[in-house]
Every structure is written in structure tokens, then in C-alpha cells.
Write a structure and sequence with these properties.
alpha/beta; 16% strand; disordered C terminus; phospholipid metabolism (chains A, B); EC 2.3.1.274 (chains A, B); 15 helices; 352 residues; Isopropylmalate Dehydrogenase; 11 strands; 11-stranded mixed β-sheet; homodimer; Phospholipid_synth_PlsX-like (chains A, B); globular; acyltransferase (chains A, B); FA_synthesis (chains A, B)
């Protein structure tokens, strides 16, 4: 059994997407038990339409719904304790849920998650890991927006957490990992990336196969299973890739409707275009994972539909099933034990 | 007449691409006069094949060719004064050329350009401006790799230079300009982006229409004419977009050759696919512009072909024709005159 708490009010469409999405995920994974938080008057009529989901869920009424444009600090002040977002996260603390999924606004969700769950021992700052479709399959890219300007130690932590997530998600033993960098050698700045590279090489963690530096075009190529970067560049890479995909889709649409010949060609090749569209479907890889907290939080796109939200639930389900949290804790512990400073501290006071 | 110096030995193919490329550009712009620097034994036989180009060119023999994988510091030590790259840049100092075009390695070209031309008065660090195809046409994105971790004042300089370049390249009077940022509000870090935004708003430069912050997906959308960012994020955005475009092209190719129906469709729609390919053709927008130096340097992709190199020459030609350097100097002067600190300094000692 996997217990998943849902912020039913989160996202552009709230219960209208979350409840049908949960019903779809339940079809695929009948061992899910949901803990739902939301506005009772809005949610109950919808839940009645999905009796199987209703039977597999516990519903808790929440007074407040966090708005999609609410500032994180305001959301925290207003929604602490009372909002569906907070309560869904807090279900991890109370032991009611193993993972939480929300399509609510990213800033508020991150602020509440940090406040409510706290960062893991040994982790200074959280990261958001995205699942990126590549020519070889999928890769994990982190951080895509939580920690702007991460230092070398934080990048190292991201590497450990991303490696653990790759093992949980892709079920590979020793994922390859690269540090995102620019190609020009001997440039000034980004000392933290070079330093993180040195740490990764020298500590020789056996749960990661460190590849070296990678560049922006290596992400889509699938050069490595895990790409590590700080949150500013990572967020810009993610959004730029999304924008480029949308741009090319527009070009393609325009090209295919321009002439009669092109239109005829489109009809013949429709199956192929459908496959392409499916391949590029952002709903299929919906679900950013917040890493580094005492609990796993899955962030769904706010504008997604039921299928997309179900995909985010799938990610949460897989993370629990494959023991992501234990994997991260284990890797961090082994890494910290490896550090000379901590080893000495361990010897002296028996504690890290 | 526009005088363009060429590093004939630069790029993966050197003279084999540079000389035919120059010949093509000359067809389009018969008022170009070329100053060529390269290995005489390699270049002269090729030049003999293009009599029109030969007649419009002055050839200078260079002893050294900079390798594509040479480190900038080594290239400077070995190639200073003697290499085709150095000599082509130096032709701006000697007054022989108005602009230089090289397909040589970016790091070496930037290092030599800074060393040989020096930064403009009032500019601390150079930027590389890329021309980015968008849904609305083209935008300028800078910096795409010269200045890692630019501070607020440097971002402000980039904005002025990018604005001037947009006026020169797109021939619009008051280009719109955005600062690249991440969407999450109230995040820590990137204070320099916020500070640059404040400077842009408060100084109210009339040569730029400041839009505000933009995100990664706004670049391809063409939300603004000029996107300003520091070099690390800019380089990663550029490479990620290139990677995504290549990735989708691969998907499309695979989809179109999978079934007989798709193949038939492809034949009918071939014209449309050709248009799409042309639209996505990286050669068409080949030519990064080094800004902030006492002279304009155009960097062509190293692996480009003759058409691509000709496109880079076209960019250089347009920049000279439309007075880019004077536009930048003028904008910088007006901006610096606007700053209260400098106004006081001007009053006191008559000099900035």
C-alpha cells in the first residue's frame, strides 16, 4: 500500500482535475490509498462520481485554498495549518501519508514544504528535480528552481540526491551523472561547479558514475542519467527547452497547413504525427520532485489535465515503492562518513 | 564600402569553408572589401578559383593557425602577433578593417579580442550576443558565454549594447528588452538581476523599451527584441535550445520513416518539411557578435559550411552598415551622463 496525500485545491482547475486524475492513477495502481484535503462543498459532489476513488480515500475538509498567484510569504502566513496545501504536506508529519502531490503554485508549495517538513539532516537547501525526455529515454535534471546560486557542497548534495532518485525511478544501479557547465574553458566564475567536480571525482561515491561536465545540448541528447546544476540556470534551461518545443510545434503546424500537398501529406502521416505529439507530450513527464526534505513532495504543473495529474501521482507512487527517501538517506550517510572532517568529528564525539 | 577582415584558418575546415563563404557574401554585397589572413600555400590555390573574391581582397600571409581545441591562454602566448586570428583582429586597430569574422575557437577568439582591442570606455566586461529565431522573427540574446556571473552594472551595460545592436540589426527605433529571470518570486539570490531591473526602470533610457523580467520560454516566443542575462545561464539556454531542436528533428525523422503511410505522407508534404528545415536551419542565424570591445568581432560556428560562414559575414556587414559601434558609444555616453555620480564627477573634474 502506498499512501498519497493530495492538495485537491491546487492547480488552475483544482478538484476538477485532481479528483479525476486521482481516479485514473488508482486504476493503474489499485494499492494506492489517498488522503484528500480540500473544500468539502466542492469536492464531495465530484468524489461521488468516482465511487472507487471515494472508497480508497479519506477526505479532510480544509478552510483555505492557496491561490496560484499568491506570494510564498503570504501563502505561509494565511495558509499555515488551515490550507489544503499545508495540511496535505503535514500528512507526512502526522504519518498519514508517504508522499504528497500538489499542482499548487511552486513558490508557496516549496516554502510550505520547507517550513513543514524541514530539510534532511546534512542537507542545507532543497532542490527540485525534473524528469526530462531525451533521445535515449529520460534523465533527471536538478535543481530546476529551488536553490538559486548553489555552492559546491550543495551541488554535491544535489548529485547524491539525484543519483538516489535515478536509482529509484529508472531502477539502474549506478546512474551516470554530469555537472552542467559552459563549454568555454578557463572562464572566470562558476568556481563552485569546478569545485563540485573535484569533490565528485575525489570522493568516488560508488552509487554514482561521475561523467564530468556536460553542456546544455547534452541534456536532450541523454548523455547522462542525472544532470546537476544550480536553480537559476536549471530553471532557465527547463523553460527554454519547453519554449523551443512549443516553437517548433508551431512551425510544424504552420508548415503542414500551408499547401494542399502538405495537407494531403499530413493526412497520410497522421499516425506518425500522433506518435510525435505523444512523444512531446508534456503531460507524460509531469511531476517535479522536491528533494532534500523530510518527506517527498511532488509538484504537478498547475495547468495540467487529469492525465497529467495522474502522471504526477505515478511519479510519487514510484518514488515510495522504490524507497527513494531511504536511498537518499543512505547515500548521504555514506558520503558524510567518507569526509575526512566528519570522520575526525565522528572519532572524537561520535556524532556528525 | 565595408572592409571585413577574415581569419581564414579559423573553424573546423579553415580556408575550404571561409573562402567559398566569402565569395558568396561578396555576391550579395559587392561593396565588401576583404582583408584575408591565412597560410599562403593553402589559401592561394583556393583564391584562384574565385577571381571576383580575389580582386576584392588583400591577402596577408600568417605563420600560425590557432587550433580549435587550443586553450585561450596558450593561443594568446603562441599566436600573439603571428596567428591569422590575431592579425585579423588587429586589422581593426591598424585601420585596415571595420569588422572581423572568425570561425575559430570561441575562447581563444574572445581572449585575443579583449587583449588586442580592449574593452570600450565605460565597459568592464564584454558580452557575446546571439541572434535567436523566434515565433515573431528574431531576437538578440546576450550574454551567451563571455561573462559568467555578471553583476547589475554589467547587465545594465549588456542592455545598452543589446539595445543598440537591435536598432542596428532590426532597424527598429526603440527595441523592447527583458531581463532573463526565474518565475518563482521571492527567491533568494540573483540580487543582481533585480538590481539591474531597478536600474533599467529608474534611468528610463529612451533607446530601450524596458519590458521587465522574462522567463526561458519567452525567448522562443519572441516576447521581447532583446533578452539580457549573464553568460552562464545564457550559454546554457542557447545550448539547451539547440539540443531540443535537434532532439525534435530526430523524433520527427524517426516518426516519418516508421510506417509506409508516414513515408507516403512525407513525400506529399516534402515541400512543407523543406520549409520547416529551412526555418530551423542554424546556418541562417550563424554569427555571435562580441560586444563591448573597441571593434566588432563576429564569431561564426566552427563547424559551419560556406553558406553559414557567409551568413556570419552578412551579420558583420549589417553591423558596420548600420553603425553599430557608434550607436553603442552614443547610448553608453548618454547613459553615463545620466548617472548622478558621473554627473557630479563631470562637474568637478570634467571627466568620467
Amino acid at each position: 500500500m502506498v499512501r498519497i496525500s493530495l492538495d485537491v485545491m491546487g492547480g488552475d482547475f483544482g478538484p476538477d482535475v485532481v479528483i479525476p486524475g486521482a481516479a485514473r492513477a488508482l486504476e493503474r495502481h489499485p494499492d494506492i490509498r489517498f488522503v484528500l484535503f480540500g473544500d468539502e462543498a466542492l469536492c464531495q459532489p465530484l468524489l461521488d462520481k468516482y465511487p472507487k476513488l471515494k472508497a480508497a480515500s479519506t477526505f479532510h475538509a480544509s478552510e483555505i485554498a492557496i491561490a496560484m498567484d499568491e506570494k510564498p510569504s503570504q501563502a505561509l502566513r494565511r495558509g499555515r495549518g488551515k490550507s489544503s496545501m499545508w495540511q496535505a504536506i503535514d500528512a507526512i508529519n502526522t504519518g498519514e501519508a508517504d508522499v504528497v502531490v500538489s499542482a499548487g503554485n511552486t513558490g508557496a508549495l516549496m516554502a510550505m514544504s520547507v517550513f513543514c517538513l524541514r530539510t534532511m539532516t546534512g542537507i542545507q537547501r532543497p532542490a527540485i528535480a525534473g524528469i526530462w525526455p531525451t533521445l535515449k529515454g529520460e534523465s533527471i535534471v536538478l535543481d530546476v528552481g529551488a536553490t538559486i546560486g548553489a555552492d559546491a557542497q550543495q551541488l554535491m548534495d544535489f548529485a547524491l540526491m539525484g543519483g538516489a532518485m535515478a536509482r529509484a525511478l529508472f531502477e539502474i544501479e549506478r546512474p551516470t551523472l554530469g555537472l552542467l557547465n559552459v563549454g568555454v574553458e578557463e572562464v572566470k566564475g562558476q568556481e563552485e561547479v569546478k569545485e563540485a567536480g573535484r569533490l565528485l571525482r575525489e570522493t568516488g561515491i560508488d552509487s554514482i558514475d561521475y561523467f564530468g561536465f556536460v553542456e546544455g545540448d547534452d541534456i536532450g541528447r541523454g548523455t547522462v542519467d542525472v544532470v546537476v546544476t544550480e536553480g537559476f540556470a536549471g530553471n532557465i534551461a527547463l523553460k527554454t527547452a519547453e519554449g523551443t518545443a512549443r516553437q517548433i510545434a508551431e512551425y510544424l503546424k504552420a508548415a503542414m497547413s500551408r499547401t494542399l500537398m502538405a495537407k494531403i501529406g499530413y493526412i497520410f502521416a497522421k499516425g506518425a504525427f500522433d506518435r510525435l505529439r505523444e512523444k512531446m507530450d508534456p503531460r507524460k513527464v509531469n511531476g517535479g520532485v522536491f528533494l532534500g526534505l523530510n518527506g517527498i513532495v511532488i509538484k504537478s504543473h498547475g495547468g495540467t489535465d487529469a492525465e497529467g495529474f495522474a502522471a504526477a501521482i505515478d511519479v510519487g507512487y514510484d518514488m515510495v515503492r522504490n524507497g527513494l527517501k531511504a536511498k537518499i538517506e543512505n547515500d548521504l550517510q555514506r558520503y558524510h562518513a567518507m569526509l575526512p572532517a566528519n570522520a575526525a568529528a565522528n572519532g572524537a564525539v561520535g556524532e556528525v
